[in-house]
Amino acid sequence: MSKNENALSIYALGGLNEVGKNMYAIECNNEILVIDCGNKFPDESLLGIDLIIPDMTYLEDNREKVKGLLVTHGHEDHIGGIPYFLKKINVPVYGTRFTLGLIELKLGEHKLSRETELKEINSETNLSFGKINVSFFKVNHSIPDCLGIVFDTPEGVIVHSGDFKFDLTPVNNQYSDIHKMAEIGKKGVLLLLSESTNAERSGSTPSEKNVGAHIEEAFVKATRKVLLSTFASNINRVQQVVDACIKTNRKLALLGRSMVNVVDVAMERGYLDVPEGMLIDQNEINELPPEKVAILCTGSQGEPMAALARLSTGNFRGVEVLPEDTVILAAGPIPGNEKNVSQVIDNLYTLRANVIYGSGKGMHVSGHGYQEDLKLMLTLIQPKYFIPIHGEYRMLYHHRLLAESVGVEQENTFVMGNGDVVDINDGIARQTREIHAGNTYVDGIGVGDVGEVVLRDRKQLAEDGMLVIILTMSKRNGKLISNPDTITRGFVYARDSEELLRDVNKLITKTVNELEHERKRQWGDIKHQLKKTVGQYLFQHTKRKPMILPIIIEV
Amino acid sequence: MSKNENALSIYALGGLNEVGKNMYAIECNNEILVIDCGNKFPDESLLGIDLIIPDMTYLEDNREKVKGLLVTHGHEDHIGGIPYFLKKINVPVYGTRFTLGLIELKLGEHKLSRETELKEINSETNLSFGKINVSFFKVNHSIPDCLGIVFDTPEGVIVHSGDFKFDLTPVNNQYSDIHKMAEIGKKGVLLLLSESTNAERSGSTPSEKNVGAHIEEAFVKATRKVLLSTFASNINRVQQVVDACIKTNRKLALLGRSMVNVVDVAMERGYLDVPEGMLIDQNEINELPPEKVAILCTGSQGEPMAALARLSTGNFRGVEVLPEDTVILAAGPIPGNEKNVSQVIDNLYTLRANVIYGSGKGMHVSGHGYQEDLKLMLTLIQPKYFIPIHGEYRMLYHHRLLAESVGVEQENTFVMGNGDVVDINDGIARQTREIHAGNTYVDGIGVGDVGEVVLRDRKQLAEDGMLVIILTMSKRNGKLISNPDTITRGFVYARDSEELLRDVNKLITKTVNELEHERKRQWGDIKHQLKKTVGQYLFQHTKRKPMILPIIIEV
Question: Tell me, what does this protein do in biology (chains A, B) (predicted)?
Answer without folding.
Answer: An RNase that has 5'-3' exonuclease and possibly endonuclease activity. Involved in maturation of rRNA and in some organisms also mRNA maturation and/or decay.
